[in-house]
Prior knowledge:
6-stranded parallel sheet; 17 helices; Rossmann fold; 7-stranded parallel sheet; alpha/beta; 44% helix; glycosyltransferase; 13 strands; 2 domains
Amino acid sequence: MTLLVISPDYASHLLPLATLATAWQEAGDDVVVATGPATASIVEAFGFSRVNLQLGRGSNPGVIRAEDQPTGEDDALRGFFDATRVGMVETLRFQASARSSDLLWNPVQTAKNVQAVVQRVAPDQIVVDHLAFGARLGLDAAGISYGDVVLGHPVALPVGDEVYGHPPFWPTAFTPRQDELGELRALNESIRDAFTAQWNAALAILDPGASPSRDAFAEHGDLLLLNYPEALHPAERTALLSPHVFLGSAVRHEPHDTRVEAWLAESDTPVVYVSFGSFLSVRTDVLQRVVDALAPLPIRVALATGSTPPSQFTGVPSTWLLRGFLPQVTLLERSALIVTHGGNNSVTEAATAGVPMLVLPFSTDQFAGARAVEAAGLGFALDPNTATPADVRAAVASVLSGPAPRAAAALGEDLRANPGRDRAREFLLGTDTSSVPDLQ
C-alpha cells in the first residue's frame, strides 16, 4: 500500500501530517510526501520519499523570517506582524484582505500539478492539508477520494452561518466593539464571495460539468479528519459537522537532545515552557514581558526564542534554557505549564502531555483555541498586547494553583491512550479509498 501526503511547504503543517503517516510507515506501507523544497529535510528525517510540489509562494522550514520570503511575501509578512501589534480585529482584518491572493495560488496549474503527482505516485490512499485549497481543488475536480485533515482548530471549516476568518468565539480577555465585529464580518463575507468565484472559475476549467460551490471555504473532502481533541470542541458545533473523526492530536517523536536532557536533569524545580511558534516569536516585546513575569518565580523556564536571538532578552536567570528552537514534545512531557500563542500544534501537544496552558493568542484560529482552553478548564487566556508582567505572573499562579493541572492530566491520559495517527489510519482503512481514477 502507498500513502500520498500532500502538504504546503510549511513545517507547522507538514509535521503533524508526517506524524499521522508514521502509522502507515510502521505497518510496512510506503509513504510519499508531495511538498516544496524548504521542508525536504523534514521528509528525509521521517524516512519518507518526496516529490516536489509547490502549493504557494511562501515557505517555512521551521522558523519564519520576512527576509527569507519571496518578494511580495516579505512585505505581507511584515504587514501581518504590524497588525498583531494593534489587536485581534486588526489582525483578522489584515489576514482577510490577504486571503484572496494566498490561498488559491495559480489554482488551475496547481490543481493540474496535483493530479499529475497522483498519476505518477498511484497511491492507494491520500491525506491532504485542508488549507491546501489548490490541491483539494485538483482532487475534487478529478473525483479522487482523500482524507481531508483540518490541522487547525475546527473553525477552519465553517459550519452553519459561520464565515471563514470570523471567529465564532474568543477568550474573555478580548472585548471587541460590535461595530468592529460587524465590519470584520462584512469584509470576510466579501472575501468569501470573491474566493468562491475564483474557486468556481478554476473548477469550471478543470471540470466543466461540476456544480459550482456556494462557499468554497466550506468545501471539504469526503473523509474529514479533525486534528483536535473532541473534548475541547463545543458539542453544539460538533453536531453541525459532516461525518468526521476527531483525531485528538498528532504528536511526533523527537530525536534525543543531549543538551535539553542534561538541563532537565539538573533540578527538580518545576519547568515552564514558553513558545510563540515559528511566526509569532517575532513579537519580542511580548516574550520579554513573559520573561519579566516569570523571572521572580521559583521555576525554571525553557524559552524557544524562534526568530528572535536569545541575546536580545534581558533579566534572564542563569538557570533558564534559551534557544532558537527547542524540542517541544520532549519539554512538554516534563513541564508544569506552557505559555503559548495558542497555535494548534502547541495546544494539542500540550493537551496530550497533560500540561495546563496560559494562552496569549494573536491571530486566526488561536482565539477559538484559547477560548476552548478556558472553557475546558485547562488554563487561562490573556491579550498579548495589553497583559502586563504582573498580569502574566498572576495568571500563571492561578493556573498552577487551581483545577487546571488535574483537568489537563485527565485529558492527556485519554489522548495518549488513543493516538491520533492510529485513529487516522483506522478511519481511512475503514473506507474504500483505493480507487484512483485514470487522469490521462
